Every structure is written in structure tokens, then in C-alpha cells.
Amino acid sequence: MRVEYELTPRRRDQLYGFYFGEWWTKHRTTEEADAALGASYVALVIDEDDQVVGFARALSDGVFFAWVGDVIAAPGSRGTGVGAAIMDAIVAHPGLRSVRKWDLSCLPELDGFYERWGFADPAPSHTRRRSAAEHW
């Protein structure tokens, strides 16, 4: 496996082959995903067949804060170490090396997985969210 940090049109097409299959991405349009990914730092994991098998993105000011989202391993690659490779890649992203605080959102059952990269409960703070109801 190798890492790439640029989402070319070819890699985007490969990514979109599995990107919209997740519970949190299935209601996104291609146009929305294009806009979100264009405003994000991306990390791609590429397999020996030159296919995207893992992906994550981060939103960041490049100094104080980064939020990691859309961490996805292609369905056929799950359980093979691709998830760890994705996380290694996003936290090593050249544009994010100076970031002081990293956040991510995940299901509670994945807490242990993300602890390997230092993600833990940020007590005493907690997340508050405002969402447009029609998007959830």
C-alpha cells in the first residue's frame, strides 16, 4: 500500500465507487461531495492494483485545529490494515504537521481503534452540534 495526498479526477472516481456506501455519506450528492473534498486535506491509500482502498479527509486551519472525517476503507479491504494505514496517512499529512489539536467523530465502538493515534475523550469539553434537519 502507498499513500497519496492529491485527489485527482481518476482517484475521485475510484473513491466514489465506495464513498457513497456509508450510512453518513449515502444522502450526499456528487456535487456536495466534490465541494467538501475540494475544501479538505485528503489522504488516500492505494493498493498494489493502483486502486483507492482507503480514504480520510480533514478540515483544518493548519495550526491550531484539525477535524478528521469520512474515514473509509473500501468494503473488500476492511480487516486488512487499511484503516490503520488511512489514519497513519491523515495524521502525517504534510499540510497538517503543525496542528496542535485534532478531533474526530466516530461511533462509540470505534473509540479503541482511534485511541492508537491519541484520540480520547476531550473532557472537560464536549461537542455541541447544530444541524439542518433536512440533511439528517
Task: Write up what this structure looks like.
This protein starts with a strand and ends in a 21-residue tail after the last helix. Strands 1-2-3-4-5 form a 5-stranded mixed beta sheet, sandwiched between helices. The chain has a single domain, classed as 3-Layer(aba) Sandwich (Aminopeptidase). It has helices spanning 9-19, 30-38, 82-91, 111-115; strands at residues 2-4, 41-46, 52-60, 65-73, 101-104. The protein has 136 residues and is α+β, with helices and mostly antiparallel strands. Strand 4 (65-73), helix 3 (82-91) and strand 5 form a beta-alpha-beta unit. Helices cover 26% and strands 23% of the residues.
Tell me the number of structural domains.
Answer: 1
* Relevant CATH superfamily: Gcn5-related N-acetyltransferase (GNAT)
Q: Quick one: overall form? A: globular
CATH class: Alpha Beta
Q: Average pLDDT across residues?
A: 92
Order of helices and strands: EHHEEEHEH
Do you know the CATH architecture? 3-Layer(aba) Sandwich
Task: Count every helix, treating DSSP H or I runs of 4 or more residues as helices.
Answer: 4
Number of E-state strands: 5
Q: Name the strands of the widest sheet in spatial order.
A: 1-2-3-4-5
CATH topology: Aminopeptidase
Spans where pLDDT lies below 50 across 5 or more residues? none
Class by helix and strand content? alpha+beta
Q: Beta fraction of the residues? A: 15-25%
Protein name: N-acetyltransferase domain-containing protein
Domain N-acetyltransferase: 2-136
Organism: Luteipulveratus halotolerans
GO molecular function: acyltransferase activity, transferring groups other than amino-acyl groups
